[in-house]
Write a structure and sequence with these properties.
The protein folds into 2 domains: about 240 residues, Rossmann fold; about 240 residues, Rossmann fold, CATH 3.40.50. It is built from 21 helices and 11 strands. The strands form 2 sheets. A 6-stranded parallel β-sheet has the order 1-6-5-2-4-3, sandwiched between helices. It has a 5-stranded parallel β-sheet with strand order 8-9-7-10-11, sandwiched between helices. The protein starts with a strand and ends with a helix. One of its GO terms (biological process) is polyphosphate metabolic process. InterPro entries: P-loop_NTPase (IPR027417), PolyP_AMP_Tfrase (IPR022489), PPK2-related (IPR022488).
Length: about 500
């Protein structure tokens, strides 16, 4: 844990005023420099009840230019937030690059509020802390400066402040029953807090402890720490060689077994029109019942459709939605990220689209673009797409832990079949909008994409969120296969 900052002696007002003048200038300069960068600052405040976190935030806000700051005030989760994974509301609140986001209530709020006394409680707490560590590492790996502050107050000083408020009718309202209980169990809460801070104090997301007995010293130490952290991070960040990613000369497999699995797929499996019509109705009915069961059980469903250009994703999605009430699903077409999306972590735009409990989201392309097109085309650095495999697995794990059912499809066609479909699109007026120069460029890198897909299959095929490989040379068979796999996985998840 980072060492304590400041001391318990009173800071004279004259010295305080002089230090504030310097700090305000430094803070404004910080914001000017931050605006020029492509990273953000996320500020987390926690501490002992009565340590003055609210006053510290208000003071800091008075010293900063409010146009470059976002205050994210989170209270008890709303119904909408409870119906999504725990981290959903925190992802939504992240600031864009070049700005400061101050979380008033964060991913630590609930864990710090309870004392963990039993072995079971400690095990649950450690699982939650693992999730927090991963989230903060994900942010820091992306360049975000994560600043975490713990305002310390001794039990004696906390008690003195409570008694001072309770002694006067005009201030007694400030003391809640929860605060009085927190004072009674101060030592137990402190033990849990030490465990939490120790387990989550990591490179890129350090805890700074600030003594809060004297408000003046607390304020200048808090602002000074923020300036110091920014300067250190800015120096490290700018000293790195920010070379733009370039298109790799050759895509080398990380896991050759994934590509072997892809190449072993029987692409020419067929289904006659008559057989398709008979099977389609049966499986549409089964899928409809499965989706309604999931809705009644308050289980959301996330469909992921990936595949080569012209593999038939759109047609498969249309047949799939034929079994679902239009009020219960949303199709999310994924294109190039917007400027706003580029100012966030690449997963941000997908977290925003996660459905509420009982509803369905269908992603036409997805977060796997990071390890496919961005890798092959050189839109991101190798260290970014390499770590994305773990980030994606963790993202899907969070969905599943919440109760979501994640169903993933890769639609595969042969190179000859793709060429035939490309030509048909160029020759058919109402299909010409489906073909462009980018499709032809992607086709020229067929082997590179096969390698990238193979790694994706090998490194993100998990038991709760497996990949279903769909032979798609025959469109009828592909659509039937999607219906069948979707129905079976949803039913199995509900039965389990």
């Amino acid at each position: 844990m980072a060492s304590s900052t400041g001391d318990t002696e009173k800071l004279p007002k004259k010295i305080y005023d002089a230090q504030v003048a310097t700090l305000r200038e430094e803070l404004v300069q910080l914001q000017v420099e931050l605006k020029k960068t492509d990273f953000k600052i996320v500020l987390i405040l926690a501490g002992v009840d009565g340590a003055g976190r609210g006053d510290a935030i208000n003071t800091l806000m008075g010293w900063l230019d409010p146009r470059g700051v976002e205050t994210i005030a989170l209270q008890q989760p709303t119904d909408e937030e409870r119906e999504r994974p725990l981290m959903w509301r925190f992802w939504r609140g992240l600031p864009t690059s070049g700005r400061i986001g101050i979380f008033v209530g964060s991913w630590y709020t609930e864990t710090l509020r309870e004392e963990a006394r039993s072995k079971k409680a400690l095990a649950e707490l450690d699982h939650e802390l693992r999730r927090i560590r991963h989230f903060e590492r994900l942010l820091s790996d992306n360049g975000t400066l994560v600043v975490k502050v713990w305002f310390h107050l001794s039990k004696a000083e906390q008690g003195r402040r409570l008694r001072a408020h309770l002694a006067h009718a005009d201030t007694a309202w400030r003391v809640t029953d929860e605060q009085q209980r927190a004072h009674r169990i101060y030592n137990r809460l402190a033990t849990t807090a030490e465990h939490i801070l120790g387990e989550t104090d990591r490179p890129g997301a350090h805890w700074d402890r600030i003594e809060a007995a004297d408000p003046r010293a607390r304020n200048v130490n808090f602002a000074g720490m923020l300036v110091r952290r920014f300067k250190e991070h800015h120096r490290r960040y700018t000293n790195k060689k920010h070379v733009s990613p370039t298109k790799p000369k050759r895509v080398v497999a990380l896991r050759p077994d994934g590509r072997k699995r892809l190449l072993s797929l029987e692409l020419d499996r067929k289904l006659s029109s008559k057989a398709y019509e008979a099977k389609r109705e049966k499986w549409l009915g089964r899928l409809n019942r499965a989706v309604r069961r999931a809705r009644d059980a308050k289980r959301s469903i996330v469909f992921v459709f990936e595949g080569q250009d012209a593999a038939g994703k759109g047609g498969a999605i249309r047949r799939l939605t034929g079994a679902i009430d239009a009020r219960d699903y949303r199709v999310v077409p994924v294109a190039k990220p917007t400027d706003e999306e580029k100012a966030h972590h690449y997963l941000w735009r997908f977290w925003r689209q996660i459905p509420r409990d009982g509803f369905v989201a269908i992603f036409d392309r997805s977060w796997y673009g990071r390890v496919l097109v961005e890798r092959v085309e050189g839109f991101c650095h190798p260290h970014e797409w390499r770590r994305a495999f773990e980030e994606i697995n963790d993202f899907e794990e969070q969905l599943i832990d919440h109760g979501s059912i994640v169903v993933k499809f890769w639609l595969q066609v042969s190179k000859d079949e793709q060429l035939e479909r490309f030509r048909a699109r160029e020759e058919t007026p109402y299909k010409q909008h489906k073909i462009n120069d980018e499709d032809w460029r992607n086709r020229a890198q067929w082997s590179a994409y096969e390698t990238a897909v193979g790694d994706m299959l090998a490194l993100t095929d998990t038991a709760p969120a497996p990949w279903h490989l769909v032979p798609a040379n025959n469109k009828r068979f592909a659509r039937f296969d999607v219906l069948r796999h979707a129905c079976k996985q949803i039913t199995a998840a509900l039965d389990a």
